[in-house]
Amino acid sequence: MTRIIDRRFDSKKKSAVNRQRFMRRFKQQIRRAVNEAIQDRSIRDLDNGEQITIPSKDLSEPQFQHGRGGIWEQVFSGNDQFASGDLINRPPSGGGGGRGQGKASNEGEGEDDFAFHLSREEFLDIFFDDLALPNLVRTQLARITDYKTQRAGFTSDGTPANINIVRSMRGALGRRLALGSPFSARLRELQKELEKVIEESGEDCEEALQLKDEIGRLRAKIDAIPFIDSFDLRYNNRIRVPKPTTQAVMFCVMDVSGSMDEEKKATAKRFFMLLYLFLTRTYEQIDVVFIRHHTVAKEVDEDEFFHSRESGGTVVSSALKLMHEVVTERYAQGSWNIYGAQASDGDNWDNDSPICRELLGAQILPWCQYFAYIEITPGEPQNLWREYEKLSGEHKNFAMQRIEEPADIYPVFRELFKKTLV
Amino acid sequence: MKRASAKKPKQLPATSEWTFEAIDAYHTEIARVAANFHLDAYPAQIELITSEQMMDAYASVGMPVNYHHWSFGKHFLSTEKSYRRGQMGLAYEIVINSNPCIAYLMEENTLTMQALVIAHAAYGHNSFFKGNYLFRTWTNADAIIDYLVFARNYIAQCEERHGEEEVELLLDSCHALMNLGVDRYKRPPKLSLAKEKLRQAERTEYLQSQVNELWRTLPVHDTKPGKVAAPRFPPEPEENLLYFVEKHAPLLEPWQREVVRIVRKIAQYFFPQRQTQVMNEGWACFWHYTLLNTLYDEGLLADSFMLEFLQSHTNVVYQPSYNERWYSGINPYALGFAMWQDIKRICEDPTEEDRAWFPDIAGSDWRETFDFAMKNFKDESFVAQYLSPKVMRDFRMFAILDDEHEPKLRVSAIHDELGYRRVREILSDQYNLGSREPNIQVWNVDLRGDRSLTLRHQQYRKRPLGGNIDEVMKHMARLWGFTVRLESQHEDGSVELVQETRLEKRRGQSEN
Prior knowledge:
The complex is a heterodimer.
Chain A: E1 3-6, H1 16-25, H2 27-38, E2 50-55, E3 64-66, E4 71-76, E5 87-88, H3 101-108, E6 113-118, H4 120-128, H5 136-142, E7 146-155, H6 165-201, H7 206-224, E8 235-243, E9 247-255, H8 262-282, E10 285-293, E11 297-300, H9 302-307, H10 316-330, E12 337-344, H11 352-364, E13 370-376, H12 383-394, E14 398-403, H13 409-417
Parallel strand pairs in A: 9-10, 9-12, 12-13, 13-14
Antiparallel strand pairs in A: 2-6, 7-8, 10-11
Helix pairs in contact in A: 6-7, 10-11, 11-12
Chain B: H1 20-36, E1 44-49, H2 51-59, H3 70-84, E2 93-96, E3 101-106, H4 111-131, H5 133-138, H6 144-162, H7 164-176, H8 193-214, H9 241-248, H10 254-275, H11 277-297, H12 303-316, H13 332-348, H14 352-357, H15 366-376, H16 379-386, H17 389-395, E4 398-403, E5 409-414, H18 420-430, H19 433-436, E6 439-445, E7 453-458, E8 465-467, H20 469-480, E9 484-489, E10 495-501
Parallel strand pairs in B: 1-3, 7-9
Antiparallel strand pairs in B: 2-3, 4-5, 6-7, 9-10
Helix pairs in contact in B: 1-4, 1-11, 2-3, 4-11, 6-7, 6-10, 7-10, 7-20, 8-10, 9-10, 11-12, 11-13, 13-15, 16-18
């Protein structure tokens, strides 16, 4: 018999495995495409997936086919002008104009790129792959900065303010009932007996008086059971549970002096972006503070940060000072995870570099989860680099790297943030 | 006189939203009419699915179960992309040649479309699968789902044991040769899950021992070396490349042979579909058209239903002209539908011309003629046998000869007295497998020497080999394990070496 089956609620995503296989197989190509896509994004534009294009030749499934050439004789439909034996000029190359399936379809594909959509998650996964900030997991687990209290049943001791009256009274009632029960049983017996005696021999007989006496004693005993006792008391129990911090602030510090050209800034942007991307994976809310500096530092918005051009000398310490001010002013250490990323070409006013080192070591690093410095310069390390080098041994949350050209960015980033889980 | 008393039959629901009850009602009626026409089909199993599930089904070549492979993921992505962008509608239905015959209906369809699809797939295609000799010979509807389950589990097992990557590379190679992995002339043994499982271990053992025998390192020395011409191996050229690899590739592990076999079996299963597209689609269109019209004549269908149905039917069987932008060859639906309609016409109402061209079927019982034609032909022979001058005229067919040595294209025949036979011949040849795909066979294995394998391509009408020869040859070499050569034999008999892919692979060494 015929069956009609509703399969609509069966497992969807039957192809999910195949999709994963596809992604794994073309990881190289996809990763390259992702890296290209980053260039056109704002560093905070992370809510979208990405349209990815990879050259279709890379993922062709080869087959033997008839090639062009030789003799093809095919039937077409819709004759409106031809008679047997007519000669026709060949259509211009490209095979358009109604060539049959045999050839045209061979060419139609081929050159095209294969485009598909990566979800945001897939996009980021590829972006991050096996990256993680140093000490990250450990920090997250160990560094508890915020608590919230929540109820956790009742306890038998606590502050009077926390007494739970209903619970306490219920306990007291139970206790009274339990302690009094032998007496009350006896009391009931005696009362019955008393009634009987009174009926038989009147109110004032010896027996009745005796019974009344006893009843009176029992009543007194029952009354002596305390109405409430200290161990009846129950207190609301509240415990403090650690609340992981879900917010972070990221400082982007960049040198915009004359020696930083557009190319270097682009490199720096990619670096900041990578850091930002990573942080969004870990924190719910992220503030980004852009500080640019030449001889004086200034907090600016993203657009100005990357696109305006300044000139003049360089005093790096000005930026670090500003960063410190902003931290103390706005990002009290308790509730914010602070990350710093500094990009520079390393060219600093000579006397300033030691100041930078001190500032960083004494005032900034202790507050920071992580501070990374990249020096974008093709030549010799500059004086700032040499000063910072002295720091890198002492502070585990400080890292520095040199980048010579944009192509180095990705490996450098990995180097900086490679997993160092303990 | 009875008319007044005859009860007016109750009309089937004519809403555009479907319900399970409505589908059931339509199905019951369609089944009844189909039975009146003596349509012999497998029991139908109608499954309602979402568009996403439809895309899943697309990706695994329409099968409800299949093994995992990245190429299916790729197809899914490209289908999904074009569907989401609205560049392409999904097929209204997918039907699986199995017993019971599974027809997928998409939930987005209107009730009319669902009825159309039931008639088209669950009765049209289904009866074709059951009747046509190619399907009867090459596929086993009872066992295919079981076999696919077996294949998926087996391949999953291999992935566990030998690593996904290794299995994937092997499947890549097999897929590249899939079209050449079918028997065209031999009759295949039937597939059955129980037998497969039972015999698989046996076969594994046996094959391995055979191979070892074949490649024994100490050759039996001829007593008179050089005098006797070395016997050729294989003695006859082998058309089924994957079969040859499975049986004779020296270095494959037993599990690898089994995987080759699975791909080959699945290719074989789809083989008849490639050869009967015009007939099969035409047949299904003919029957949905006929069945629904019969229901309409009985008064069961509303006019609004018929209008929607006819509109989509007309779209399906539309044949654009060669100079229209969306022309992409002869539409198999259009041609098939026209031909079946025409055969019915010839049977019922033949003209003089028909009597001259089709003396044996003109005026015969159309149901019998249909049965015979459906059962015993494939596209190539069906067109050669039944394409009538009327259909050629209706389509205004003309043939164009494109010879690369001529400066111009030539119209070799058109739909006129002189050209009918020629046009029919050319169209039939277009559906000939040899003209659709290059003919490549295993020609020789150098048994005494470097174990290299030679493939020979028989040129068809001087057409050179195309496609990514280099890549396919690498895949062939990976499977074979030694050097593989590809020769091309021209029509004048001369042979030319097209490609040589050298490979010296040792056991345990993976080659890329």
